[in-house]
């Protein structure tokens, strides 16, 4: 007898095309700036052209008189209900942080800070009138250079008395997770190798394509804010905590959001001003920034100096690592600004068994744009440092860079492994990912070509860069966050509602802005509940629908939010079991659930989960006391971070006569555990690679000596175009994570974290032969050319001669 | 105010506009064509790309009055997709190849790509990359956008054969 099996095929692992796409490719998107409400007013910001200045007078009279202007506000008008911008992660109890009001009272502390707001009937009228606001400034000396700032040469906020915000230290000896790094270093100095480096992490701009935008509607009982944000739940909490409106009266909606990359996990002056002004005027208001405003006022990322000391034996066994960071916060401590470099503290040891480790991070206030999370947040810096150091150590020892790495990395049979930074890595297989990457890359052939070019003194030299990375993601175990003085938990929430018509409504507390949750989460639920993919609707990004959540960042949506979803779905099944038993006139113990069907052991009798949903909807035939609902929710708090890893290989051609770099090949094998949707995973990797490569080769937020952002538009800030990049050779290896049911690992940041050192190692590999040891990022042709010239000069002795004269 | 008359997505429209109003503002604010997006203020990102008399232009880079008498097609008029209607082959290729994530660059990217294939129905990868140079995407790394254009080109060839 053949039984036709109409159960849906396994959805997990399928390269489903995205549910989100249709509205986005047909122009039926709903980004915040698309929203128009009756009577809506528009805001324009008057921003400081100075990095640091006293505001001596603001004359708004002309602007107020302009036609169609409704109001002009300055700091003098604000009251307590305007709130403040919060720092949720004071990394030390004595952290120094200036108060961050939506408008500064009498002193601006970065170029681009808002000093007045014009409200008008149209955006154009508001912008025109903003030009008429007359602000008198007394320019003050500005703290700009990070190294000068840490020396307190000029104070960014004179009343704080110092620019040093917080010093955060981890020491493996003190923590009991390892030995004494100073001992390791001095031992290596007498009988081993010590690599000392200072690396610069260039300042980056997240440069999401959708400029930030906010609409506030104060009419009705609930105040509603639409915002181009990654974090509607956090914005709602922060509004309630600081503006005196009860949380229950606040609805925050993140509609379609055009990218974030960490850049939209902020609480911003623009949002707070729109909120306050709408309440003052009892009218809906909108503010959409221009790209120039976005570049100077939305938070930046990275901007650190990394002083590094790596100790090793002559045989290439690493014995200790010391990290001294100086991190630029900009002029305010952003929501998790101080914590971002500290996230790196746990990752400098990376995939290696390092016996002694010391990490110290000094955060510093300057008169520049504030900094906070940007894709990777702390882990790209750590990965860059260690992967550069490992390649430098291999070079110093004349060892093969893979041999050196393998000598030090955690072997696959050693998992779970507790690292010197105190984390327990649950799973991984660095050998497998590396072997596979070398194969796809054609490592041996490229090495042979490299040798040929070297021998023939080809003006175009080939370089091969390696990055064997891991990262910690899936933010985060609440207990760990608590121990780090973070102001919230790291759990995530989900609910599953079984509708009467058989459709399933899934609500997640994560908030997608391009990641494809609607598709991937539908696949998970389709498998878990045995319902068709098409019947699942995923809702998110609206605090009135998704009543509980902690949003999307830190590659957490799948590994934390997805697990909450799985648990909610499992509860649905558990709740449905007694209903099914009742309807099937069987004992609960005899009910089995498989592929969407409740069956009775040993019989053909059964009911689909949708039939059970229909039965509880009508509730005509339920025993007394049985709840007529099989809906369920779950809140999941992870017990550990999640550790994707992989091997990235990059080949570049460097024209030694011009410094031009041409990328030849980029191969990566990422182990992100079990994959829900390979298409989406691949997309995340590609996008991540592009951003990491951009840090290595193109992007740099540069301020001039007066503190004006020079790279303040897409003309000067080089977000790569299609012509600047190549097609990527991306593959997977898989060791399932053991800390979530589906065995998944985060993928949102992996590409960015891994690629920057792979690219810079490749460039250096091409030009080390000329005595080049470092090239500051971004490795522009001019810098590469200069490094080669300088290296050659040292080689031939001409530089030292020159220096003597 | 200046009176302009033009065709947008197949419909005749006329309106009085301020001489300084950009075409993209006219489309979004006056006509509610919010499928066309604004990503920058220096004509670098291409999010605002539409077709003007059959060719891709950055609608932030021209005034509404300059479009007087022209035929404008936006992403919303590229194909009759309302109510589940069939996608334009380029839209279908973007969907098929996962050539979008947040979708913000997508309308402009699609409009530019359609024009690119109009100029060169059988482009090499390098020609595609150079042809899309004026449209920035922050999400995809362009890998799948290039695939999508190649897929649409192949489909186009198939259709002609
Ligand atoms: S909005 Fe037109 S090019 Fe950026
Ligand atoms: S899909 Fe987000 S910018 Fe291209």
Q: How is the topology of this model organized?
A:
The complex is a heterodimer of chains A (805) and B (161).
Chain A: H1 21-25, E1 41-47, E2 53-59, H2 61-65, E3 69-74, E4 107-108, E5 114-120, H3 123-130, E6 134-139, H4 146-150, E7 164-171, H5 172-175, H6 181-191, E8 193-204, E9 213-217, E10 223-227, H7 232-243, E11 250-253, H8 269-281, E12 285-288, H9 291-297, E13 301-312, E14 318-330, H10 339-343, E15 357-365, H11 379-397, H12 401-408, E16 417-418, E17 424-425, H13 430-441, H14 443-455, E18 460-470, H15 478-483, E19 492-498, E20 504-508, H16 517-529, E21 536-539, H17 557-583, E22 591-594, E23 597-600, E24 606-608, H18 609-618, E25 632-636, E26 645-655, E27 661-671, H19 678-697, E28 729-733, H20 750-767, H21 781-796, H22 798-804
Parallel strand pairs in A: 1-12, 10-11, 14-15, 20-21, 27-28
Antiparallel strand pairs in A: 1-5, 2-4, 2-6, 3-5, 7-15, 8-13, 9-10, 9-12, 13-14, 16-17, 18-26, 19-20, 19-25, 22-23, 23-24, 26-27
Chain B: E1 2-8, E2 11-17, H1 23-30, E3 49-52, E4 55-58, E5 71-73, H2 89-96, H3 106-119, H4 125-131, H5 143-160
Parallel strand pairs in B: 1-5
Antiparallel strand pairs in B: 1-2, 3-4, 3-5
Helix pairs in contact in B: 2-5, 3-5
Radius of gyration of chain A, whole Å: 28 Å
Helix content of chain A: 25-40%
Q: Termini distance of chain A?
A: 97 Å
- The strand order across the widest sheet of chain A is 3-5-1-12-9-10-11
Mean of all residue-level pLDDT scores of chain A? 95
**Quaternary arrangement of the chains shown?**
heterodimer
**Element string of chain B (H = helix, E = strand):** EEHEEEHHHH
Bound molecules: FE2/S2 (inorganic) cluster
The overall pLDDT of chain B, averaged over residues, is 96
Poorly predicted spans of chain B:
none
Q: Indicate the CATH topology of the largest domain in chain B.
A: DNA polymerase, domain 1
Number of helices of chain B: 5
Pathway (chain B): Alkaloid degradation; nicotine degradation
Protein name (chain B): Carbon-monoxide dehydrogenase small subunit
Keywords (chain B): 2Fe-2S, Iron, Iron-sulfur, Metal-binding, Oxidoreductase
Domain 2Fe-2S ferredoxin-type (chain B): 2-78
């Amino acid at each position: 007898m053949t039984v036709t099996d109409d159960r849906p095929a396994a959805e997990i692992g399928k390269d489903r095309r995205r549910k989100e796409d249709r509205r986005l490719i047909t122009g039926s998107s709903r980004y915040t700036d698309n929203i128009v409400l009756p009577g809506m007013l528009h805001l324009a910001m008057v921003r400081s052209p100075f990095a640091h200045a006293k505001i001596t007078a603001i004359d708004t009279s002309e602007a107020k008189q302009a036609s169609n202007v409704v109001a002009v506000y300055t700091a003098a008008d604000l009251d307590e209900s305007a709130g403040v911008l919060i720092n949720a992660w004071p990394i030390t109890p004595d952290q120094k942080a200036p108060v961050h009001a939506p408008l500064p009272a009498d002193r601006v502390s970065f170029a681009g800070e808002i000093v007045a707001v014009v409200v008008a009937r149209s955006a154009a009228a508001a912008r025109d009138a903003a030009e008429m606001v007359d602000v008198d400034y007394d320019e003050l000396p500005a703290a700009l250079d990070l190294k000068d700032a840490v020396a307190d040469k000029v104070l960014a906020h004179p009343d704080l008395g110092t620019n040093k915000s917080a010093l955060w230290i981890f020491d493996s000896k003190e923590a009991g997770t390892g030995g004494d790094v100073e001992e390791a270093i001095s031992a290596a100095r007498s009988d081993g190798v010590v690599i000392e480096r200072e690396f610069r992490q260039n300042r980056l701009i997240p440069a999401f394509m959708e400029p930030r935008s906010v609409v506030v509607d104060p009419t009705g009982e609930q105040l509603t804010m639409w915002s181009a944000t990654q974090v509607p739940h956090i914005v709602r909490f922060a509004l309630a905590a600081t503006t005196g409106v009860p949380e229950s009266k606040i609805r925050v909606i993140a509609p379609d959001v055009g990218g974030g990359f960490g850049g939209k996990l902020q609480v911003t002056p623009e949002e707070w001003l729109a909120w306050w002004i709408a309440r003052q005027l009892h009218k809906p208001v909108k503010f959409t920034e221009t790209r120039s405003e976005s570049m100077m006022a939305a938070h930046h990322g990275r901007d650190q100096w990394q002083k590094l000391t790596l100790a090793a034996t002559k045989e290439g066994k690493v014995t200790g690592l010391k990290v001294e960071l100086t991190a630029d916060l900009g002029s305010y401590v952003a929501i998790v600004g101080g914590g971002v470099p500290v996230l790196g503290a746990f990752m400098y040891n990376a995939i290696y068994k390092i016996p002694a480790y010391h990490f110290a991070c000094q955060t510093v206030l300057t008169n520049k744009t504030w900094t906070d999370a940007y894709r990777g947040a702390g882990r790209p810096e750590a990965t860059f440092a260690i992967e550069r150091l490992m390649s430098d150590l291999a070079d110093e020892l004349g060892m093969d860079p893979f041999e050196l790495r393998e000598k030090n990395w955690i072997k696959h049979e050693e998992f779970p492994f507790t690292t010197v930074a105190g984390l327990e890595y649950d799973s991984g297989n660095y050998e497998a990912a590396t072997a596979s990457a070398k194969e796809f890359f054609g490592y041996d052939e490229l090495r042979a070509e490299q040798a040929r070019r070297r021998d023939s003194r080809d003006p175009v030299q080939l370089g091969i860069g390696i990055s064997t990375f891991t990262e910690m993601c899936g933010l985060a175990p609440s207990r760990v966050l608590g121990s780090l003085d973070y102001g919230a938990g790291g759990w995530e929430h989900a609910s599953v509602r079984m509708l009467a018509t058989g459709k399933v409504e899934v609500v997640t507390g994560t908030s997608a802005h391009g990641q494809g949750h609607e598709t991937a989460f539908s696949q998970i639920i389709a498998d878990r509940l045995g319902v068709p993919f098409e019947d699942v609707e995923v809702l998110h990004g609206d605090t009135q629908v998704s009543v509980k959540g902690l949003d999307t960042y830190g590659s957490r949506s799948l590994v934390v939010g997805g697990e909450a979803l799985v648990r909610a779905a499992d509860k649905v099944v558990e709740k449905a079991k007694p209903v099914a038993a009742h309807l099937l006139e069987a004992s609960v113990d005899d009910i089995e659930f498989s592929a969407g069907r409740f069956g009775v052991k040993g019989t053909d009798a059964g009911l689909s989960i949708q039939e059970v949903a229909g039965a509880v909807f009508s509730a005509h035939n339920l025993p007394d006391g049985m709840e007529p609902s099989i809906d369920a929710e779950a809140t999941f708090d992870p017990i550990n971070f999640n550790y994707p890893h992989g091997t990235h290989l990059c080949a570049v051609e460097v024209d030694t006569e011009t410094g031009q770099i041409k990328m030849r090949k980029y191969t990566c094998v990422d182990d992100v555990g079990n994959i829900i949707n390979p298409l989406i995973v691949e997309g995340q990797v590609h996008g991540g690679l592009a951003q990491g490569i951009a840090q290595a080769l193109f992007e740099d937020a540069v301020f001039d000596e007066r503190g004006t952002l020079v790279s303040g538009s897409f003309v000067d800030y080089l977000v790569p175009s299609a012509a600047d990049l190549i097609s990527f050779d991306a593959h997977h290896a898989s060791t399932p994570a053991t800390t979530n049911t589906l065995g998944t690992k985060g993928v949102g940041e992996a590409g960015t974290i891994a690629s920057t050192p792979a690219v810079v190692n490749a460039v250096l590999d091409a030009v080390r032969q000329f005595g080049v040891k470092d090239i500051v990022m971004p490795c522009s042709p001019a810098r590469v050319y200069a490094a080669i010239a300088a290296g050659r000069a040292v080689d031939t002795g001409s530089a030292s001669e020159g220096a003597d004269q | 105010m200046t009176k302009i008359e033009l065709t947008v997505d197949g419909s005749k429209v006329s309106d009085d506009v301020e001489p300084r109003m950009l075409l993209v503002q006219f489309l979004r604010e006056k006509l509610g064509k919010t499928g066309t997006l604004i990503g920058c203020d220096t004509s670098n990102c291409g999010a605002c790309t539409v077709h003007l008399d059959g060719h891709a232009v950055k609608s932030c880079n021209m005034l509404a009055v300059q479009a007087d008498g022209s035929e404008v097609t936006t992403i919303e008029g590229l194909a009759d997709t309302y109510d589940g209607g069939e996608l334009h082959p380029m839209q279908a290729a973007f969907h098929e190849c996962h050539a979008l994530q947040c979708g913000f660059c997508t309308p402009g990217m699609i409009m530019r790509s359609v024009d690119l294939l109009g100029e060169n129905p059988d482009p090499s990868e390098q020609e595609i990359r150079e042809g899309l140079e004026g449209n920035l995407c922050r999400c995809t790394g362009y890998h799948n956008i290039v695939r999508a254009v190649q897929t649409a080109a192949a489909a186009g060839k198939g259709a002609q054969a």
